[in-house]
Amino acid sequence: MRDFPVRYLALMVTGCVFAVSLMVALRLDIGWWLVILSGALTAIGLADLLQNKRALLRNYPILAHFRYMFESIRPEIRQYFLEDDAAPNPFSRNQRSLVYQRAKQAIDKRPFGTQLDVYQSDYEWINHSIVPTKLASHDFRITIGADRAQPYSASVFNISAMSFGALSANAIRALNQGAQKGGFMHDTGEGSISRYHQPENANDAGGDLVWEIGSGYFGCRNEDGSFSAEKFAANANLPQVKMIEVKLSQGAKPGHGGMLPGAKVSIEIATARGIPVGMDCISPSSHSAFDTPTGLLQFIEQLRNLSGGKPTGFKLAIGHPWEFFGIVKAMLHTGITPDFIVIDGGEGGTGAAPVEFTDHVGVPLQEALLLAHNTLVGAKLRDKVKIGASGKIITAFDIVRTIALGADWCNSARGFMFALGCIQSQSCHTDRCPTGIATQDTLRQRALVVPDKAERVANFHQNTLKALAELIAAAGLHHPSELKPHHLVRRVSANQVKLASALLPYLESGQLLSEAQATSGLPEVFAKYWPIAQAESFHPIR
After folding, report:
1. What is d(CA 107, CA 120) in angstroms, rounded to the nearest whole number?
2. How confident is the model over 243-293, as pLDDT tens digits?
3. Is the peptide bond before 349 cis (omega within 30 degrees of 0)?
4. What is the distance between the alpha carbons of residues 480 and 306, in angstroms, rounded to a whole number?
């Protein structure tokens, strides 16, 4: 009982103040504001004593509320006052600041040397040349689907998949208008093509779209949720749609379906997705249009034909190796190849997910990209299939690293969210995004002024490519496609560094096709799982 006065001090003080101020107010008719304030606090304290749900409030009436208040703003306190500039949470202040500076056309240079510990393990750099090149342009592009009826010339840096519904109407408008200004592509996400992805004026051009087809077949579904070829063809043949992407999984929650509660399914979202208004919107964890690797490729071929020959491919976060190997074996058996594959790293993404999935499901980008690149090289298919990659790509060096490891182009979701003004409040799933980006609240999203943010999106893309051009020129190269693993150096200890080409395994062209090399001489993942993968099933041979 000796700490009784301390534990109940706040309640005792407010009670005494209330009693004294009430007597003074009744006698002199002054200080009623103090009566109201102290009376309210006293009432709160008594309620704390009488409630039986929170022991802390019963033991520390009134005072415990301050503990809960500070706990609720702990992330903000750390982010704004205590965070190390270089500590990723999940993006560092330095990373966010760089995006803001490039989006706002502010100075993005830093004086006085690096803040990174260059002798710490995993520090990376790109070697430069004594004879740097001079580049005439930073508009680096690659051709996807070169032998198709409608090939697409894509930028090497683009907007990754984010759906209308997850993002606000104004955010989608700003991203698409920014993509149009900068000449790069905007992935719709599985929420399909909304009116906000398209220009408001029919005479204006919209940003190039990659239409993502998820397991819910939004925008191309029948009433029972199955795929509708007729509805797909109507959307796929829009001039603004440049490529078709079948989504198998995403980095944020691979192997996990999703549901948009009926309360959030507005008329606009329902129209875009082709679902009933006010009904729960289910995204199954797997597709119903196919259930084998061969079926996937036949579905891709169907979509390519229905779209008039537009580049068509698929996106996935790598999981069981034999499943991806089965898809590649199906390419060899059927002769059908996707025009591209987008690898989503397990460290993505913008979508809210169960903590266990966010932290412990899905192969990280480096290993996933290596697996995909090596498998296609080993099967002599790499020249037929372009590879895109996404997963915490923010800076020009992130693009350099990713392309050097095996990608042809990079996508970024959270980078472009920062360009819109995202402050990493991590409230995307609450519908209370403070910047109006990840919300359907009409009042909140009014804060996002579309013309201004579209300009910032275009600026971020432009200035990042300018920085990329400087890195490419410094290395003595002419295009990012010339980047190879030997250009990338990584510290593995305080006194040892290695080229990525020596540190990471790379297959020889056709190595998986040689019977003599079926198991011997291959990295363990290929030696163990390539022989048991099959084109007819996603399950391994037992």
Report:
1. 28
2. 999 999 887 777 776 767 776 788 888 888 888 888 877 788 889 999 999
3. yes
4. 33
